[in-house]
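Consider what follows.

. . .
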Amino acid sequence: MIANTYPALMPCYNRLNVAFERGEGVYLYDGDGKAYLDFAGGIAVASLGHCHPHLVDVLKKQVETLWHTSNMYRIPAQEKLAERLVDASFADSVFFTNSGVEAIECALKLARKAQSSTGHPERYRVITYHNAFHGRSLATISATGREKLTKGFGPLVEGFDQVDFLDIEATRAAITSETAAIMVEPVQGEGGILTATPEQLQELRALADEHDLLLVFDEIQCGMGRSGKLFAFEWAGIEPDIVASAKGIGSGFPLGACLAKGSVAQHLTAGSHGTTYGGNPLAMAVGNGVMDIMLEDDFLPTVAENANYLRKQLNVLMQKYPETIVDVRGLGMMLGVEFSCEFRPVLEGLLADGFLCAQAGTNVMRLLPPLIITKTDIDKAISFIENAVAKLGNKS
């Protein structure tokens, strides 16, 4: 018998050399019991931290009653969560998925279908932005156009036109008679925590209205409370036509959603779109559990308050170490710290010290902590970061 020389797991990830056995609140623990303060949050997924008691309770109850039926039948908890999302947002209708990329796929199909059903089948193209990240399906890597994501996977899906991030005049120039929609992340995560201003999003809304285009927001990472409001676009005082949501909506359970205005959603009729697992009873139990917490009166205001505190403390570090920390940017609990050096070695050093964060590009620290962090947790995080920066020897 010839030995298998290939890894059992496909080598898609450049994993850090640590494995976690359990989590509690804002901490993860490895097999030796070492604690790690988690400011990565599973890449913005663990919105309520690890093993939140309320989510553990609702999931246990659901596990003991019903796991899956498919969307051949009514799912009352799905109807409940949809109504809660509608009541708390711009949307009139919701489609549940298993992931963010599926939510984006739904949004793209919906934009094309809505244009076609209203007499404009020629309108199928979508304007997107350089350095965006919308997922890893063939359509979504085509939407980004980034060689890092697309190389070797051609031919790409037709119908996307990329321009510089939130360049309004370039966006205007890209509009043709075939344009159906504009799709944008209010905060680019993988692109380096680049944040649209309220004025830029307002201009996009006006531009879409002027040309009868749909405005699609990818809030997979920046939505569900991470900005200090349920959705990041709320800071701009506008309403999109479609929003893709995921990550924090399930706080660790695979769940996504495509939210839309009724005038758009009505065009996805029976049989035109679907999913086997999406919105099943297990996912809906967790999704409703997350909403139980996020809709509490003081939850989002507390997130916004603590996010401001975190940013202020990071700004203090930037002033103290200007040769190392180039910029602090972002929105709410989605912050980027730009370094003057490659960040991977710093990331590995922080891991060894017991602090978890993420990376964007080559030199940006991405902070995506659970939304339940306290000022005490923030002070501990700042201490970890300052120790790492001081080791670089660039104090002013």
